[in-house]
Amino acid sequence: MAASGSKRRSTRQAVSRIRKRSRYAEWESDDDDFDLPSDVEFEPAHSIEPQPVQESVRRKAKLPSRSKRQTRSKSTKPQPRSFNQSLGKPHKRNTHTAPSKKEFTGPSDKKIPPWTSLPINILRSIFLYASHPINDQTTTASANALWLMKAAGTCRAFSEPALEAYYHTPPIFASIQPHRLLELLQTPKEEQYIEYRLKIKSLIIDVLRLAYTAHNRGPFDLSMLVARLPQLQHLEIENEDDLPPFRSKPKQKWYYPGDLFQTFTENQQRLRTWRWSRKMMAERDSMSLYQNMLQIHSSKPFEYVRKLVVCGFNVTDSAEPEILGDDSSVTAPGLATSIAVLPNLKDLTFVSCDVIMEKFLERLPYGLERLELTNCLELHNDMLLSFFAKSGSAIRELVLNHNSALNLAFLPALKGGCPNLEVLKMDFRYFSERENSSDAEPLYDELLKSDEIPTWPTKLRHLELVEMQRWTAEAAKNLFQSLIDSAEHLPALRCLVLHSHINIPWRDRAGFRDQWIARLRRVFLHRTQPPISYLGSLRQWSLWKQAQANGRAGDENHDPPDLRQALTVRISPDKSTGDTDYYSDSPPNTNSRPMRRSTRVMEAQLSQASATASPSPAVESNDDDEQDDGSKTPENFIQGLCEIVDISIDNQRPRENQFTEGDFLDDELSGDEDWQEGADDGEDDRYAW
Fold first, then answer.
1. Which ranges does the record mark as transmembrane (predicted)?
2. How many CA atoms lie within 13 A of 494 on its CB side?
3. Has residue 471 got a pLDDT over 90?
């Protein structure tokens, strides 16, 4: 028995040694190395006698099969056979190319302008402009911060202005970075390349970087960092809950340090920007809360505050004191009265504040130039009209986003209530209070009634109304027509964005869309000439002058192909300009495979055919505009000064996650397209199509 048992064990070991190994190879590949016959198998390194193995296999085949318990590690799928040639072979080359950059690819004389000779203040302004944004919790901001550090290491002339731009608002993306910034400021002055503490003027930190401790570090003390920033003017501690979709997420709580405001006073700092968040304030009683805010706002550090952001003040924990009768003056402090003591306040923002009720806006300080009300559920038109009657003449910018009870009924009184208004932005998209519910519906019956005609201030330069919903085609027509009628009195208008959802039959909607988009574009859009093609570089200019001297500059069709190519400024786009990419709300797929060869051939032929058959984009757009029915309507005045005219009319219902056509399209054309004779001339014959 022992001998037979050992024999069966040795047989099993022999069978396991010659068992086919699994291979993992791509199903489709363009490499010729994988074009091997299917009978190639792996040969074991050790020689094994085949006769006992065959007998054992036949003997095992006669035995009754036992039901084996299947486990997760046991795969039931057939495993593909591996190739002997693939052992030790280097990995396949990565075919994914890096995203193209915006750069000039035309003829150049390779002469770099003397950037290093510019003054340091101009270089600093260039770096500040080129690196925006740098504080957002996004990959773009992180890449901009990395670009500044690389620019600082380019040369000595760039080091100081690039570092000043970096430390003007130091980016903080992790919990360890505040500790490292504090350690940098604590180093001796003689060991610092520049005096960093004098360069930091703005500090924007996400509350998660303060609420959670870094590895092997204790809780970060914000007061210690603020004490070493004598030039600090802007301080904002942001919370993700104050951004769309405005839903609270469980996280570690963090409160303003008790000695933070005392640190401002001791270091004689003068703030210009401050942000209040109710979730970061430890006071539970509304009376003590507003008394503390009133005391802080009356202190010296807040005397020069120009921008104030207030987030999350609700009725449950931050109720305003009641007003008896028509007297707006109250003895007990409240949110509005504590804000009113700021003498230099010009920019005021409320986010998710349900305390804005009744006469709250009337108690705000006079002289506000910018007012933003976002996700305030109790805000309605009567409150705005009362505010316009008192303080509307000073308002320059008005932002009203995601307020479910506010419609456009105040537009007929906008010109008289806010005569100096320059910017009006409204977003009519709403969000549910809970993620598993669907109650994101407006609280008004109609966005704009058919008998309400909007009026527009003469100084208006930016108008943006998006996700307009729940209104009739007649009301939308009145709004569009009011803009056309007021075009002569809107000389400063430069941006017009109108996105509307109208629920009418598709034939009527198509005609309505074509008519009004054509009319609005013809009245307001600025028709710019294409840039001169021969001013891309000095060498390009010299080539054009040479062609002009030869008498061939007036007709590009007679130029040789290489010269016509040299006279064309080619700018490679940063990303695809297709409609599906632009209108897609989902993130792009970065793991897409390269296109098939047949697809590349077909796209090349289509591009050649379109280049020879279609006119220039400018001529084509003009022809399309003149073919529209709306262009036949005579206009009294053509403003023609808007750089942006974005008009959208459809019947979609606004949702938190809006899916469009781009979310349901593949990255490449599906399948093999129709074969065309002569398409593969001059190419290799690896494929039959």
1. none
2. 5
3. yes
SS3 content of the chain, % helix, strand, coil (to 5): 35, 10, 55
Q: How far apart are CA 205 and CA 307, in angstroms?
A: 17
Token digits of residue 629: 């029915």
Q: How far is CA 438 from CA 131, 366, 431, 503, 657, in A?
A: 39, 39, 8, 20, 12
Residue 550 DSSP label = T
Written as six digits, the tokens of 429 are 């998209």
The percentage of residues in the chain with a pLDDT greater than 90, rounded to a whole number, is: 54
Query: Distance (Å, rounded) from C-alpha 12 to C-alpha 114?
Result: 77
> What's residue 151's pLDDT?
94
pTM for the model? 0.72
Query: How confident is the model at residue 478, as a pLDDT?
Result: 97
Residue 394 lies in a domain: yes
Helix 120-130 vs helix 139-152: angle between axes, to the nearest 10 degrees? Answer: 160
Residue 449 located in a structural domain: yes
What average pLDDT does range 258-263 have in this prediction? 93
Q: What tokens were used for 158?
A: 């760039």
In a domain, 560, yes or no: no
User: Residue 415: which domain range?
Assistant: 202-473+489-506
| DSSP per-residue string spanning 16-58 | HHSSPPB----SS---GGG---TT--PPPSS---HHHHHHHHH
Instruction: Indicate whether 42 belongs to any domain.
Output: no
Q: Which two tokens stand for residue 285?
A: 């009683």
